[in-house]
Each structure stands twice: as C-alpha cells, then as structure tokens.
Structures
1.
Amino acid sequence: MSDDPLLSVRALSKFYGNRIGCQDVSFDLWPGEVLAIVGESGSGKTTLLNCVSARLRSTSGTVHYRMRSGEMRELFRISEAGRRMLMRTDWGFVHQNPADGLRMSVSAGANVGERLMAVGDRHYGRIRATALDWLGRVEIDADRIDDQPRAFSGGMRQRLQIARNLVTGPRLIFMDEPTGGLDVSVQARLLDLLRGLVADLGLSAIVVTHDLAVARLLSHRIMVMKEGRVVETGLTDRVLDDPQAPYSQLLVSSILQV
Amino acid sequence: MPTPLVVSDVTKTFTMHLREGVRLAVVEDVNFSLKAGECAVLGGPSGSGKSSILKMLYGNYAADAGQIIIAHHGRLVDIAHATPRTMLAIRRDTIGYVSQFLRAVPRVPAIDVAAEPLLSRGLDVERARQRAADLLARLNLPKRLWHLPPATFSGGEQQRVNIARGFITDHPVLLLDEPTASLDAANRDVVIALINEKKAAGVAMLGIFHDSDVREAVGDTVIDVTGFAPKGKAA
C-alpha cells in the first residue's frame, strides 16, 4: 500500500434546491482499498458516489484524484475531455442495472472490446482475444461472445458489465448496488468474483450498498450515511461488530439472522 | 522487542442506543503486557470481558479509553487510536487472531482460506498453498476437504481451517480465542505443539482457553480479568 491517497474528498456537499443530497463529506481512499458506503434509500449514498465519480457536479467541496503521473488533480479543474478520458480508462462504474452500463444491442465481445477501442486499440484479433480472456475471468463461456447481453441472465449481464469495466486496467472502480436485484445464489457468485478480482488486481473501489453482508464481504472500511451525512466511519468489522452511532446500531440490529 | 504489546488503562462500555442509551460497562482500567516467547492466559468466568479484551486488541471492538501499544514495523502504535488503514497493516503484518468461529466466504476452498494471510502479504500462490497444505495435514483435516469451501464443514473441521489460517504467518503477536473448543484430544495436542513452536520462535500470545488441560500445557502467566471489573458494577 502506498502512502499517498488515490482519492481525497473534502467537505463535499450536494443540494437539490434546498433539499440535502449529501453534506460535508470528507474521506481519503488509498490504493488497494475498498470502501463501502452504507445506509438506507435516500441517505445520500448514491448522490455521494455520483459526485465523487464526477457524474454529478457537487454544490461545494473538492475531490482530488491522483493521476497516473502522480499529480493530485481536482476533478472539476480537469478539462471535460480529460475527465471523460479518466472515466473511460482509469475508472470503472458498475451500475445496479446492467442495462445502464452495457450496450444491449451489440455482442458481449463488442461490449468488452469497445472500451479497449476507446483507449486506442485498433487490432481486431488482439481486441477479440482480450475480450475472450475477460469473459473467461468473469465466468462467461467463450461461445457466448457473439451473443447480445439481452440474451443473458441478470447475473451474466452483471458479470459482463464488470468485464467491460475492468478490461482497460482501471485503478478505481465505483459500484452502485452491484448485487441489487440478483438472486441470492447469483449474488454469492458475483461477490466472490468481485472479491477475487479486486484483490488480484489491487483495485481501489467505492461500493454503495444497503446490504451489510455485501459490505462485510467486499470492503475494508465502511462509511454509514444518514440523511446526507456520514454518521460513522471505521474498519468494516469494527463498525459491524461494535457500532457506535445510534443509526449504525439500528442498521446492524435490523439484519435478519439466518 | 521483549514487550511487543502493552495495554494501559483500557475501558470498554457498550452504549445501547436502541435501549434508551443503557450503558453496559464491560471492563475498566485494563493493564497488562505481553512478553515475547510467552503465552498469557485470560482468566475469569464467562461474561467477565475476556473476549472483549481480545477484540479490542485486534481493533474489532473500539476501546473507550486507554492505550493499546504495539510494536509495529519498528514503531510503537496505539491500536486504540489507529486509523483503519494502520489497523489493517497491523493485522497483515503484526497481530494475528484465531477466532472461535470461521466466517466462511462463499466458494473459497479451505486451502485458500488458510493460505490467504500469506497471499495478502505478497507470497506467491504455490508457496502459500504448500504452507497451508502442511498445516492442514498436521491438523488432520482430511485431504478430500481441502478443495471444498468450509461452509458445510463440521465445527471441528472449520476450527482447524481457522487455526491453520491463524498460525500460517510469523506475526509477532497472536491472539487465540478458544482455539481448541471443538477439537478432539489428538488435534488439541497438535494445537499445543503449534503454540509451543510459536513460543520458541519468540511470538507473544494471549489466549482464552476453557479447556484446563490446554491452559496448563501452554499458559505461562494468567491475567485475571475479574481484576478489571467495572467499579460501578457489584462484584
């Protein structure tokens, strides 16, 4: 682990008119670290994720990102084109609904290959070989490479979306409820896959989830949000086993035991 | 480092916000230190806070007050105030923990569960798996189970995977939470031998052992937890 953070968020707020999206959020994310943002619907976790990933303009506060050159840059001081390049190459964004992150009417192979072409690869054979390799890594059979994702199950679509995001070798992945809407058995497979990939590739990730089991399995650190504010933050197992804030205690005590 | 861990004036209280903020005092003014090459035993009846002390040392429970100083990478770090990132580094390299129960991750085979602490420290997969295999074999876990996820294993089998995982590294401090609770006599002896090897290697250990045979076989000193009972609480 390096000593410099990859991402540094300070006093970030987002207001929708006079309604609070998120307020006064600060944190650092280091290389190789997975941060889970938990809280109930409407707690501001997706707003925060969208502001940090430059998909949404914050009302105030700063987000600094360490470029590959080592230089810390404020996201909204990078040119629009530069920010788009960052999103296509250095970052990935895994949506809850795979249809938001995939092109449903082109083949699985093209979905993966497209990100490679966006970073300048033009060699068809190499693109196809890399796409095949990534389909294998997310456990999609090679003979499905020419099928469209609309012919895939929900779990397969989500795995394809992950392959599409990871093929360019990003350093930071944003995930919004990556297992939401999947059957429990499919969730377990996806979580295990994500856990392995994140560890093997040394990725940093910010995962928004309302599912504390997902946070326990994937993350090193947890940030608990309520009404747009961070109410508690700490080591994942510490927050889940010894929650301090009243709202964290409520969340943890609400988990059904099986 | 002859004294790798020093606990000073540590206090732990649970505040139950969902129960009108009831405060449950667990321990107060906890003071002790661990010596390299020795195994200290936490003594006291159940409910006296033994597990809570182990969990605070591992950063799993927050300490309300006091210091838990550990020698980490040649520096002294206070676990009670360490950032999550520092705590993760301390767990990776300095302080190990053998919990009573295995928190099984879906689909990960037993051998990789045991090898994982070495992998996270950058050892290559083949060597890490070999070390894991050696330990699982020593603990008499049937070879046919090594490549299966432990979720469906018996309590004793899961505990042996957990022990292999905890003993596989050369962490200078090792916490043991009833590592022999669900083991038969033969495997208890294997664990006693493993603990003695750690002592010979200069590891400082702190354990909870309900089994008096094991306690007597490995314990060098006893830390009486009843001495840390909260003053407000009737003894």
2.
Amino acid sequence: MSGKKKGEKKQVYFDYNLLFIIVFLLCFGLVMLYSSSSYISANKFGDSTHYLKLQIRNIAVGMVPMLFFAKVNYRRWRNLGTFAYIVSLILCLLVLFPIPVLVRSSHGQARWLNLGPFSFQPSEFAKIAVILFLAMIIEKIPKQMSKFSSVLKVGAFLIPLLGVVAYGNLSTAIIIFGIAVCMLFVASPRYAQFIGVGLVGVVGAACFIMFAGYRAGRVEAWLDPENAGDAGFQTRQALYAIGSGKLFGKGLGQSLQKMGNIPEIQNDMIFSVICEELGLFGAVCVILLYMLMLWRMMVIANNAKDLYGALLMTGIMSHMAIQVVLNIAVVTNTIPNTGVTLPFISYGGTSLVFLMSEMGLALSVSKGIRLESME
Amino acid sequence: MARRKKPVKRFSRTMRVKLMALFSVFLAALCFLIGKLMYIEHTKGEKYEKKVLSMQSYDSKTIPYQRGEITDRRGTVLATSVAVYNVILDCSVMTDKEEYIKPTINALMEYFPELDRQELESYATEKKTSRYIVLARKVPYEQVQPFIEMQAEVDKKGDKVNPDIKGVWFEKEYQRNYPYGSLASAVIGFTSDGDVGVCGLENYYDDILNGVNGREYGYLNADSDMEKTVISAQDGNTLVCSIDATIQSIAEKKISEFNEAYRDNYYEGAGSENAAVIVMDPNSGEVLAMAESPGFDSNDPRNLKDYYTDDEIENLTDEQQMNVLNRLWQNYCVTETYEPGSVQKPFTVACGLETGTVKDKMSFKCDGYEMFGSERVNCVVRSGHGKESVRKSLMDSCNDAIMQMSYKIGKENFLEYQSIFGFGQRTGIDLPGEANTSTLVHKLEKITPVDLATNSFGQNYNCTMVQMAAGFCSLINGGSYYQPHIVTKVMDSSGNTISTVEPKLVKQTISESTSAQIRDYLYDVVTDGTGGAAKVDGYSMGGKTGTAQKQPRDREQYLVSFIGFAPYENPQIMIYCIVDEPNVKDEAHSYFAQNIVREIMEEVLPYMNIYPDEKKTGKNKGLDVTGENAQCTGRHQPVKKKKWKTSKIETNE
C-alpha cells in the first residue's frame, strides 16, 4: 500500500494486478478443468473436451458483463440495489415451483431457470443482488451503523431472500448470509455483537444440517469419511486424491482419482485434482493466488473514492473469500460436504458469469481511485 | 486525506480497520486450510496413495477364449462353441435416477420376455446397491443384438434415443454346441461348463481344444501412469477327425432301425442289449464310423428321458443315476470287453498259415465235438461237418476243425500271434477309457488245452471291438497293423494346420501272401458260407461271422457279430458289427449282425465311390435290416419273459 506521488498530472488508475490474477485464474482453471474432466467427458459424451468447450463458452459469455461493468461507472448502480434485490427474490421464488419449461432440476433439487438457450441459477444472482442492496443501504445511513439495532434492521431486510434461497440451496444461503455479515461488520464499528451473530449463524447452520433429512448422512460422512459408506464416498475419494498427491503431485494430467472415482470432480471437487496433480506445492500456490486477489480487493476498497465503492469491494471480497474457504474446507473435509464452487476454476456457467460481473464491478471501482490519494 | 469539495461519504478509518480485520480472518482461514492440507498429506499421504493405487487394479476383465471345433473328415462341424450372453443388471446404475427404472424394466421385458417383471421391480426396490444380478443365462446373440442396437440408437442430432435405459450389460461366454446332437456322441463326448471335456474326444483332447483366456487390465507403470493392456484370448485348436458324418449317420440309423424292429420282440426292451459298429479304412487305421446304441444327445447328456420313464428317473438315487449315465456315456467300441466268438477264426488260420503249421491243403474231420477230459466242446453242427478243408472250415465256421488246427499250431505259436494281432494290448486309439485286456487273455504258462482250443474260435478270452477291428485290418490289408485313430489333423482357430496325424504303421503281422489267402477264404465265407446274409449284391466282399456264447454259458445269451471288408482284392473299407443279446428267442444267429452290415454297406459303398465289381445275382434282394425273407428271423413271436435254460454247450456258428 505504498502511495506514490506522480506529480500534478491526473492519472487514471486501473488495477492491472487484479485483472492479471483474474485472467491467470481463468486460464489455470481451464487447464485444470480439462485435466479433471477429460476422462469422464470422454466416457459420458464421447468427447474429452465436452466440459472444456462449455467452460470456454461460459468465460466468453462472462467476458461481456465483466467488460461492461468495468467500463461503466459503478456509481450508476447505486440506486438499483432495491430493484436487484426484488428481482432476485422473485427469481428465487420462481425456481421453487416446478414449472415444466422454465425450471430445470439437478441432483434432486430445482435450481435452474431456463432462459432461451441459457439456463441459470437465480441463487447466484442473489449473491450479487445482496452486495448491491447492502452497499446501497449502508451508504445511505453510515452513521446509524454504529447502533447494532439498526444493523439488525438492515439485516432483517435480507431474511425473505435468505429463507427462499435456503429452502432450495443451503450452501448459497450460507454464502449470502456470510456476505451480509461481513459487509455489516465492516460498516459497523462494533465487534462483540458480530462475533455473537457469527456464532449464532454457525450454530444455526449446524442445527439445520443436523435436522435436514437429506443432509443427515453428510454429518456422519464428515466425522468419519473413510468408513461412512456411500455418503462419505465423495469426500473420501477427494481425501485420497489430496493425500496421494504428495508434495509436488503426480504431474499435470496424471490424476488417477479423476478416472470416475470422484463425483462432481469438474465442479465442487476440482481442488482435489489440483492437490493430486500439482501436489501440496500447487495447492498452496493456488491458495496464495486467492490471498493475493483478496489483498488487491482490500487495497481497492481502502482506496475507493467513495463509501459505496468501498462497500461493493467489501462485499465482493467477502464473497470470493467465503467461497474459496468453504470450497477448500469441504474438499479437505474440514466442514461437512456442501456444494460450493471454487471461483474461476470450477466448472459452472452461472456462478462464473456473475463472478466475472463482480470482477467487472471491482475493476470499475479500481478505476475510480486517484493515484494521488492512494495510501 | 479529505481533499474533496463535495461531501462524499468516504470509507472511514474504522471501516478500514475492520476490513483489515476481516481480511485477516480470511487469511487465517486460508492459512488454516493450508495447514489442514499439509496435515492430510503428512499423516495420511502414504495410506491414501496406496488406496488410490489399489483402486486402479480393479479394472481387470477376462476375455473368454473360444474352444476349438471338432469336424469330421469332410469339414462337417460336429462340435463347436457359440458365443452366448448372460444378461447382467447393475441395479445401482439403474436406480441411480428414478427416471431410469421404468424404461429399463420395460426394455428388458420387451427384449427378454422370459424375464419376470415383478422380480425386476423387486430388484429396483430391494437390491438397489447390487451391482451384479444375473437376469438370464446363455442368451443367444440374436436375442442380445437388438437390445444393444436399441441402446446405441441415436437420432439425427446424435442424441441417444433411449438415454434412460441404464445398467444392463452382457457378459460373453461360450457354450458348447453339437449341431448334429447325438451323432457320434460316444466318440465326440461332451463338455461340462463349456470347456471341460467329460468323455470322448472332448476329454481326450481337452488341452488342445481349450485355449487361453485373454485379459484386459490396467496397471501402473514406473511413472505411475495408468496403462491399459489387452491380452487377447487364444482360441482353442480345431480337431479334424477321421469320422465321416455320413457313414456315421448311416451306421447309427441302421443300428437304431434294428433296435426298433426288434423292440419288445421277445422280452420288453430295445432290440438288443448293445449293438455297435466300427467302420475303418483298413489301409490307414482311420476310423470312419464308430456307432453304438443307445447313444445320447451331446447337447443334453444328462437327459435320461429317452431311456426311462419319469417315474423311473424319480426313483433313481443320485448314485444310480450317475451309474446309468456313466454307462450311457461309455463308448462301447473301446471300453467294453467281450468274447468275440468265431470272428477269431481267420486269425487262428492266419497264424497257422504264417507259422507253417497249417497248410491250405490240409483237411480235418469234424465229428461234432472235442473232448477235454470230461468236458465236451461242441461244434455248431452237433452231428459234425464231416471232412473239412481249411477253406471250408471257415465257410462252415467249424469249431472242431479249428480246434484241431490249434493243436497243430501249439500254444506258443498261438499266443505269440494273438499278441502280434494286438489281443491283450491296448490299441492306443485316441479315445479315453480304452479297456485293458491284458488280464483277460491267457498266459503261456497257465493256458490249458481246453483254453487253447476254445480260444482258437474266439471264446474264453476277451477283447474290445477296436482291438478286433485293428487286428482284422492287418489280416486283410497285406499284414500292416496300423494303430487305429480318430483325429487326423489339428488346426488353429484361423484354419492353419498345426499338425497332421499320419497313419501309424505299428508292425507287420502276417505276410502279404497269407493275407491274400485269408482274403480269399473270407470271400468264400460271404459268397458261399455262413456270411451270406452280409453280401451286398454286386460287390466282392469278404468277412467272417461270429456267435459268441456269453458267460454264464447256461443262460444261452449270445453276442453275435460280423466282420467284413470290401472290395475283396483291394479292401477299401472294413466293417465290424456286434449285436449283444438280440431281442429274440433264439439268439445264436450271426445274421442279426450280418443284416446290419449289409444294410450299412449298401449305402456306404456307393457313397465312398466304390464301384460294383461283380455281376449282380439278385442275392439278398429287397431285404431290410431284419433280413426279412431270410430264415429264422425270430420275429413276431409273442412277448414273454426270458427264461434261462441250462446247458453246457459252447456253440459257434
């Protein structure tokens, strides 16, 4: 965070560091995606590049909103927070009803909305909507944030959306909840209450996990994945992959566990292939890259020219961080199995497109920074 | 810091601090996860690596080989292995998604209607995790193929038409198939489990017929790369045997015609206890046909329904059933021993001629019997044949004259030549279970005069059919004893010859001239002697009849036989037929066998492109396998229980 004086000349800042990390992660993600999915796509679709092609398409599609949001001044979205929030709430509600043409289900849960050639998960949109919504509210009443009651009031706005999302997809609800808590935490000068809220959240999630029928097996699997039978299969296989990778891994493309052993390997479990092929070294490098990314986001937030931009950056950073932490925590069996994707690397269209939109926002915020004001 | 004109809300210092705190939390979480990764790698790395490696070796699949075929000398396939498929259901795949279950069960029911829908549905609910359920066994390819095609079918877009049919696959194996069923079943034998030969050639050449299973497996090379390797199966070799399916089927047909004609004739049951025929090429020892009754169906060897009623089968104990089956599966021609009777006589004469102890010019006086102490051995004509030359003694099948010859030959010469002709030794034919007759012939130090005398006309010692046939071939072919054999060629699965079995000349039994002399005598036996019923009109034939009284002698049970050849000058075919206990009141007549031989030869001689070499005289015209028109057929007598008469006579025709 070293400030630099560049004379009187007004210079436009652009965070190339962040852009570089994004592009690097996307490319690295493609390589790992191809490596992890080639076997199963060849088996399933007779084309080893099936997932690779789709992901390239997703990236291409994601580039459009990213460039758009990067180009447009982020302050334009200041008043659209409520709108985004309501739209996402409606979409999330819509997906709960089994409307034949509109709703597509997968893994026994309806999560997709069909829109012409594309289908997308409204819950992914909900994440960005919450960021926009909270940033808008907090910017309007920054002073009141010192009162914890008003913090709770703001939080209460989110309860409908959280409820609807949690009904269909608990992990996304947890992420949204996490984003909200992080943003409110940063906005409010208080600490203790947030630790309390955090604890309540963790306990609540734990209770939900314990009682929700289809997740019951996952707890057993979490406690003892090696002997948990079918429920622990995915986690167990992921652990085998991590353990067998050793320090430097088996080498790119040499994973054995990707040969159909790990379900959802191109998706939630892609980090286990990174561990297996690139070893502990590769995995740590990837984590360091994410750390670097989070740091860049923090820098942008700290130097944003206004509170709104800073709050946006806080939300985006929290989102990124929570997903990375949760994903790696699942793969390493630190928490019970729940479907969270690894940003930029996991296969998945909706999450990638919205993540890239967020990155566009972040780049847009970084453009607002005046170099002379940088700390 | 605040150098702005507009009161823009800024990110306050408190907020920065808190953001820093948040960032630190994330950093800490990520560092913790790095620690966790290291921990997993450090504590469980070795174990998990082994787990991963051990999971790879599962990918191993056996590729079954195809057992070799057995064909006859003209390439007719007598035994082959056809691919059949077991229908396997991987229930965990089928029940993976709810929408798979119904289409899959529907498709199974459509293509395999013999399956039980309720059973399939119960699998879907009760055996969800089962990965290997055998739904049907040994389904032919024609039935499996449409299912596979239906599964692979794609529409114009390249999408599968039936994507929801999941979890059904087919396991290939081979099933032994005998296109002609019971044809030559005793020679060919059968297999259990598709590749374990139980009897016959299947058993004798088990190793040659069987191949080596292939394997498809993956292994990890030095770089821990997965290498997939396929070792294809080595199919078994094909046996070409000397059997001629046409001759074999003619022989089998005639035997069964005979057995049917005399069924329930004198007592309840088939026309004979046993009836068997060997047809050989006398100039190579190759067996052209080896037939017997009753045969069995090689495709269904354990089925006793043709021989017993259901009730009888019910009542059989397992052991009894096994005994019955073992008897059924035996090849009478090589595993059974019996007293041959007068077909021995040409051997005795040949021995005498060869040793010079008997001369063509000699003559003997038959008074109807010979006395050995108090024991009387009769000739077929009790009153005696009168004066008998050597030739005439064979034509009349005179025991007395032959016994007198045996005195001249002496026991040393006789036993030496019996051994030369192969009696008492295994022939070494390539079939399993050949009987050992070494203890069933007399030894020089123990033979008594009555033994010698009775041996000379084929009683009191035992031989097998194949011994007799092989020895007889040497009598008529100029004295060359060829080892009888069945398999003439071994080919690999693609039809390349691996080895051929050349006729194995074992020894010279008698001289060319003696052989010619014997042929001459035997020609007269058929033309003007006891063997007349075997004569095929228009063909020069030689042969000798036999009517052996079985032990115990007082039961008046006979094994009648005829051994013959054609054409007379240059024998191309040798045939030996025995009928064990023909189902008639008066068994002691060889024409039961002669009729079968004539019937077979009538069809086989033209088939073998042997042309008639004599003028037709109308002899034996219009006769059937019972020898209708011939005297004393013994047919059409009321069915009654068999009685055992007591008598102490040994009779030979």
